[in-house]
Amino acid sequence: MGFNIDLSKNINYSEKIKLPPLEGGGIILTYRCTNRCKHCLVAASPERENRWLDKNAAAEIFGFIKNNSPGAEIHIGGGEPFLNPQCLLDIVETAFERGIRLSYVETNAFWGNNPNKYEPVLKELYKLGLRSILISVSPFHAEFIKPQTSVNAIKMVRGVFGYAGAFVWIAEFLTMLSKHGETQNFNIETMSDEMIRRAADMYYLIPGGRCGYSKPAVSMKRSAKDFFITNCGRELLSTAHFHIDAYGNYMPGGLCGGISMCDYKETGGEINLNDKPLLKILYNEGVKGLYETALKSGYTELADGYCGKCHLCVDIRKFFFNDSENNEFGELAPAEFYKTITDEINLKSQIL
Ligand code: SF4
Questions:
Q1: Beta-bridge mates of residue 272
Q2: Whole-model pTM?
């Protein structure tokens, strides 16, 4: 009598996971943004719901973090937090009231040419105790934010917070972008394949969110089987860069945009995977298992391949989301992530 070849899989297939204490992460005030950056992991855009984290919900989130993971270092992001200065000020104030270690607020700096409105906001943030603003600079952002606008924002932040208060991520891109003209939006399609791949490497880009669909591709595309190497346990268990959004979704620290592992309040205990079948497969078998399950449900592999395992993962999750009536998969959240990417692909000549 032979062994059942599924035996070890059945024994080892985890049904529950427990996260370590939260180490560091971001609070997503909103998914609304001025930009539709091609690399965005959460598919933020001007079309996303105009929903913002409110002060009471923020107080609960910060209270939870303080009680369960007092050492966690938190930043505030989006979407674009400066689109709603009052919300931003309220949330930063609440974070400090709750004793949170708040490291920075992240922005695309769209406001760099408007000191009349935004310098007072920066001064208020500084008064509340904030000491750093992360200003994103990359070819992806520069399609929407002119380099000179970023430079003006950096100067404005330094004027209020001091030189070290402007954390420019990544400053080296300014040199490259300025060669194309400081006062023009950058067109990523003018970059050679090699340059865009180097830029993606410099930015430590993860091809999740809408990134895998962007043109030109951020990495050489490969067939699905080339990504069947590991499961996703490491990324899903990581609490090094988690996110909690305005809906209360906890997004894993491996930056898995569009995956809600649980409500953030469940992160202290055991997370049951039995009611999250796709997450359970990803945790135990990675994208290989997800791909095999999807094929059985009618998924067709993309003919031109994938930019990475997270692109494959997003494409399959999008398939399951669109294929199930009323999204039967609670882990595919927020639903608007999938609707946004699907709509953008349908309009790809205009957007991606
Ligand atoms: S493949 Fe999916 S689950 Fe795994 S790290 Fe990428 S986005 Fe997360």
A1: 16
A2: 0.93
